[in-house]
């Protein structure tokens, strides 16, 4: 619909119109199309501004277009005379971090002509958590401790790095520090709207009629995925030192899985499941959503904390890069 509105505008498209469609494509992972539209915008004589370049760099970041992203970052200053703001530097750190070029991201931060803020360092810490770089994560966390010592999210990210590496003593040490300083981890939740009513699911919450129905349907779904698609849970993503059976139980009850199960139980066939999540979708849930879309013939759109994932026929619009 956004494309149709954009294509059929009766008046000349302004910089706001061009930037809006580029940003929309970026959030859905259509990096190449966003770049193509940017070039079309240039050809029409519309001059991009700083916000346009943020959207463009975001598009490159979420599509793994590293070299293209660096090219646009250089073009912004050298061709259009736009001085990069802290947000543009943040986009570049995110671009390198998502592509697992962590040391390049660190070097980029160290060479910035402006002082990096906590968000810049936190972006790199998040990338270290995703790609499991303990050494760099500890270095970045030390920088953040000087700038924002009471941020619980930073402790959680470092704890996650240790957990993936199986360093449970370090995980316990961080959790002890968080307890001593009354820091609490933000719980993961997912929401779905059905008949104009919004239902929220939190993993581990007390059972009620809605959650009981969701759990019941989810058990049926998971069994069908195992039988028909050979699904096996990704236990390595469980960030607690518990037995394998407990890990399997834990990963099977993530909030977005419950929201999807409830949607399948309640919405008529053919309706799109639209789920909003407050955290980054995990690898196991991403796999499950792809399998559900294929086995149940349903389209699922999940909006996590940084982008949209559109699941259809066993594939995701992010092409497994998020």
UniProtKB/TrEMBL annotation:
Segments annotated as PPR repeats: 14-48
The DYW domain, residue ranges: 230-322
InterPro entries the record matches: DYW_dom, E_motif, PPR_At4g14850-like_plant, PPR_rpt, TPR-like_helical_dom_sf
Keyword flag Nuclease: no
Keywords tagged on the record: Repeat
Gene3D superfamilies attached to this UniProt entry: Tetratricopeptide repeat domain (1.25.40.10)
Pfam family membership, one: E_motif
GO molecular-function terms, A-Z: RNA binding; zinc ion binding
Record GO biological process: RNA modification
The keyword Cell membrane appears for this protein: no
Protein family: Belongs to the PPR family. PCMP-H subfamily.
Protein name: DYW domain-containing protein
Organism: Vigna angularis var. angularis
